[in-house]
Write a structure and sequence with these properties.
56% of the residues lie in helices and 17% in strands. The chain is of the alpha+beta class and 353 residues long. Among the domains are: 76-181 and 268-278, no CATH class; 183-266. β5 and β6 form a beta hairpin. α1 runs antiparallel to α6 (284-308) and α4 packs antiparallel against α5 (225-268). Residues 225-259 form a coiled coil. Keywords: Coiled coil, Membrane, Transmembrane, Transmembrane helix. The chain crosses the membrane at residues 14-35, 313-334.
Length: 353
Amino acid sequence: MGITLPVNFDWKRILKIGGVALIALILITLAVKLVGSTVGTFTKRGSVSVTQGSLGNSVSYGLGEKYSEDAAYGVAGGVPELSVRNIAPIPPDSGGATGNDAEEYEVTDYRGTIETRSKDEACRTLFDLKAKEYVIFENANTYDRGCNFTFKVARDHVEEIVAAVKALKPKELVENTHTIKKQVEDFTSEIDILQKKQAVIEDTLNKAMSAYDEITILATQTRDAESLARIINSKIQTIERLTQERLNVSTQLDRLARAKAEQLDKLEYTYFYLTVVENKFVDAKNLKDSWKAAIKAFVRDVNMVAQDVSVNLVTLFLKVLQYLLYAFIILIIVKHSWNLAKRIWKGQSPPQA
């Protein structure tokens, strides 16, 4: 005996409840998004952090973005540029030099970082050293947040330049003294070896040319064309190979000669590697950049909220409708399956179509 329960749907009430639920869902979504955005912003901000290094510093205004005052490598906008001058020098070989005359090959260089609130004045002071005859500039970079210079000074005037640099009150000024005797000896030894190799190649090339000339004359006199052709081909290959070897050796000799000259030049001059960093208490540019980043983050969050309460909400509604349709189909199948099972259990045959 089937029991049928009357079901009365009040559609107006259902629509009211659905509307209230939809509005509540939108408000909750907005609240969660805004609270999450605010908490995330304060979490990332905290306080202004300053990271200082031996050659520069970076300042962060709590937006997850660092505005680097990268004065160590002489670049505009804090973006490092790679060059031979930017590479840290190779430290002296720990093996040391032989003999008791290592001090005769001592060289000195200075590396310093100057932090100032007026980078234009400090950079101009250092650049004015270029006018002195005993100061030779090799590299000079000026950019928004500082500058850096690489120059060498005749050894007789080093104390004067050191005093001028100290007058700028550098944050750090390092004096490095070491001997280059071992490097000079290594270059000299390699040059001697290559010069001997070059002499051997020249001698071999001359002898080969003479031998091939004699064989060519003999083959011509005997009218042996095949042998003459082989001799000519062999001569060409030998000349090409020895000539290439001679060029390679000459290239290596030139490179070593330049490297040795650079090392010996350090005996006459002292190198200075100086960096000026602008470090203001209130940096208007950084503050402006931080405001730009904050506004961009706010617009991004508002856009996400707008998408969530419009397009994404419609997508969610369609997904729910899809699953409700699946549930309705499953419910119909279960209902008919249950009725069929009851008929079979009671011995009744299923209705014929």
